[in-house]
Amino acid sequence: MRRAAAVGLGLLALLFLLPLLFLGGKGEAGEDPQPTGTLPLDRTVVSPPPAEGTGADETTSIRVKLPDGTVTEMSMADYLWRVVAAEMPASFEPEALKAQAVAARTYAAAKMASGEANHPDAHVCTDISCCQAYITPQEAASNWGESAPSYEAKISAAVADTDGVIITYGGQPIQAVFFSSAAGRTAGAVEVWGNDVPYLTGVESPEGEEVPNYHSTVTVPLEEFRTTLLSQAPGADLSGDPSGWFGPPVLASNGGVVSIAVGGAEVTGAALRDLFGLRSTVFTVQADSTAVTFSVTGYGHGVGMSQYGANAMAREGKGYEEILKWYYTGVELEQMAESIC
To answer: What are the helix and strand counts (H, E) for the chain?
Structure first.
């Protein structure tokens, strides 16, 4: 299906979702997993028709800003291979890799349609703080060792088997954000970033104890905590017994800390995650006379598709279409618009 992009709707979508753009496709994938779990699905899935003629990914060119600052042009197929290889463990199930390929293609399509102020001469870059992760085939093969031939083929198949497919809402490519692993449920965008995005709502996610480092602990010496926290919240009163510094947290639907009173000052869970290197905002905290200890579950911002959750669903026999329509509410799967191709 070839569809002309509506410029007005594109601009509206850009303005609506601009606060999300800085997140890019940043996915915090872990090591080789053995996910399990169950999750009933009741959403209708309609697969898009295959692309007509030559593969859409092969005939679509994308400009990529490399780490050395140079800009190179390559096919969408080549770019997606490099992104999927960087963003998701190649040991994951084929349908999970396909879901990742579609999310990555959607992200790239949105960038191509809207442009990027950080690198106006390129559609995307390789900086994960701005765009998606990226790895060359040579670097990936070195990381994979003896598994390289089979992993290379798996990722090539994930890209080819979803040729040209993107995720849309209201006819426009969505901001297909994703993260590594959830603590049983994802969060809505409004809970994490303040934007009420209709397709980024909280849903159950089936991964669990099989995820590497699913539970983690960060212990911060008391004086280090005091100095670091006061740089963020100078009004906090961190005198007296440390066990009384923390008030009850305000929690999101996924169990993540939206905010918590520390020494009488409200601090967001996201700020604490950044300040102390926590893997997610799903945490509890304890303090004594020597240290502050965070007990953390999951990894990532918690919005959109959970990569380990996608893999668990794929192991249950769910297809990439089901996975994507579970994590992104009310979306459609379509071929890239003619104006992008």
So the answer is: 11, 14
The C-alpha atoms of residue 285 and residue 242 are separated, in whole angstroms, by 11
Beta strands in the chain (DSSP E): 61-65, 71-75, 124-125, 165-169, 172-173, 178-179, 215-221, 250-251, 257-262, 265-268, 283-287, 291-297, 305-306, 332-335
What CA–CA distance (Å, rounded) separates 253 from 203?
A: 9
Q: How many angstroms separate the CA atoms of 134 and 127, rounded?
A: 8
CA-based max dimension of the chain: 71
HSE at residue 169, side-chain half, CA atoms within 13 A, is: 19
| Global confidence as pTM | 0.82
Helix axis angle, 7-21 to 94-114, nearest 10°: 110
Single-letter residue type at 77: A
DSSP letters, 9-27, are: HHHHHHHHHHHHHTTTT--
How far apart are alpha carbons 212 and 210 in whole angstroms? 6
- 53, 46, 168: which is closest to 102 by C-alpha? 168
- Give 246's DSSP letter: B
Place of tokens 């994960």: 128
Tens digit of each residue's pLDDT (9 = 90 or more) over 202-234: 999 999 999 999 999 999 999 999 999 999 999
Instruction: Report the share of the chain in percent with pLDDT over 90.
Output: 80
Single out the residue of 314, 326, 327 nearest to residue 158, CA to CA. 314
* DSSP-derived secondary structure letter, 122: -
